[in-house]
């Protein structure tokens, strides 16, 4: 196992309390590491200018943050979270008072605000308001007071740049890491909702649309007509001839296979020109979009020819079935139910007239 792998496993190790989310501990650990790195450089900078207060401040809070880091592996979340906030605010204030804005420690208030926003379980608004108040007070303090200690130019620029970089890294990591699962969960929820919608709108046997989905789709097409995006539309109802005889002779499983094979054919042949739905039992409803009655009759005749050629193997048998269709050009002055009834009436005319035909 490489050093990087070991370090990653150590950083992402779960705390002793299995009920405590590992994300909480990891965000605290990364924040502690960022702050400790800054404190280390603050101590080095203090050594360069011979500031004993800065050295003591840096080393004291460096050790304190290391202790907080160690606590993230224990069952001590509430204590750890409190110590982390208190120690961070304390060293930000003290280093700001000692070195002023040049040290850049005030930048960590923003990082702390994000961490508290993600992790605080009680009174987050109060905590964040308090942190903003600290930031404002530090600004006001800097306008009235000069810091007692001054870093040389190179150290000042280095510390200021480091504080900005660590603040950015902490905010970026915490935000992405803590919200990654939420985004993935949202994606999975959208996929699940889409799956539920598909199940709710699909006939379970034939896998084509059910009655509800077709009615919903027709309503959308009617809105297109009102907007002038559609001029014509036609509907047809088809019923399998002597379907009861198929069930009685070969069994309902054979009847189900017939329905599945026909639905597959209809779905293929209506793609791009309209839609098909299982209307109920052995009936299918067809919608021909942007087609007048004559154009729909041509399209439906092509479907009927393919249907009459279709061979449906079942066991040792090869079945052939026919269908009777009632077709009607959609009258936009009538209701949807009235238009469907017009097609349905023509279907029954076809049944009475000998079946295996299209009545238009």
State the main characteristics.
two-stranded antiparallel sheet, 2 domains, Alpha-Beta Plaits, 360 residues, 66% helix, alpha+beta, five-stranded mixed β-sheet, 12 helices
Describe it.
With 360 residues, the protein is of the alpha+beta class. The protein folds into 2 domains: 3-192, no CATH class; 211-359, 2-Layer Sandwich (Alpha-Beta Plaits), CATH 3.30.70.270. Helix content is 66%, strand content 10%. It has helices at residues 3-11, 22-49, 52-71, 77-99, 108-119, 124-144, 153-201, 211-226, 243-250, 252-270, 293-309, 336-352, and strands at residues 233-240, 274-280, 283-289, 312-314, 317-319, 323-329, 358-359. Strands 2-3-1-6-7 form a 5-stranded mixed beta sheet, with helices on both faces. It has a two-stranded antiparallel sheet with strand order 4-5. A hairpin with a 2-residue loop joins strand 4 and strand 5 (317-319). Helix 2 runs parallel beside helix 4 (77-99) and helix 4 runs antiparallel to helix 5. The longest helix has 49 residues, at 153-201. The chain is elongated and about 110 Å long. The N and C termini lie far apart (76 Å).
């Amino acid at each position: 196992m490489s050093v990087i792998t070991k370090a990653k496993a150590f950083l992402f190790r779960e705390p002793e309390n299995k009920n405590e989310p590992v994300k909480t501990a990891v965000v605290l650990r990364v924040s502690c590491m960022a702050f400790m790195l800054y404190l280390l450089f603050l101590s080095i900078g203090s050594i360069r200018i011979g500031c004993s207060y800065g050295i003591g401040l840096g080393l004291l809070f460096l050790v304190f943050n290391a202790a907080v880091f160690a606590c993230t592996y224990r069952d001590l979340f509430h204590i750890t979270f409190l110590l982390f906030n208190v120690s961070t605010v304390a060293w930000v204030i003290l280093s700001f008072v000692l070195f002023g804005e040049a040290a850049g420690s005030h930048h960590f208030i923003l990082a702390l605000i994000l961490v508290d926003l993600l992790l605080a379980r009680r009174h987050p608004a109060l905590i964040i308001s308090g942190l903003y108040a600290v930031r404002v007070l530090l600004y006001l303090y800097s306008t009235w007071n000069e810091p007692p200690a001054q870093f040389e130019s190179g150290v000042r620029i280095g510390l200021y740049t480091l504080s900005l970089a660590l603040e950015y890294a902490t905010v970026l990591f915490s935000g992405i890491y803590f919200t990654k699962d939420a985004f993935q969960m949202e994606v999975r929820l959208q996929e699940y909702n889409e799956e539920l919608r598909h199940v709710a709108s699909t006939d379970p046997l034939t896998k084509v649309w059910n009655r509800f989905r077709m009615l919903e789709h027709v309503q959308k097409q009617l809105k297109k007509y009102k907007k002038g995006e559609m001029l014509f539309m036609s509907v047809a109802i088809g019923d399998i001839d002597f379907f009861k005889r198929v069930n009685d002779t070969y069994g309902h499983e054979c009847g189900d296979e017939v329905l599945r094979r026909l639905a597959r054919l209809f779905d293929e042949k209506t793609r791009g020109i309209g839609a098909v739905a299982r209307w109920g039992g052995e009936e299918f409803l067809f919608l021909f979009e942007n087609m007048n009655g004559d154009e729909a009759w041509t399209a439906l005749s092509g479907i009927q020819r393919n249907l009459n050629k279709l061979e449906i193997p079942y066991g040792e048998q090869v079945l052939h079935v026919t269908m009777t269709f009632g077709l009607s050009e959609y009258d936009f002055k009538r209701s949807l139910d009235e238009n469907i009834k017009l097609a349905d009436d023509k279907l029954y005319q076809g049944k009475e007239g000998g079946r295996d035909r299209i009545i238009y």
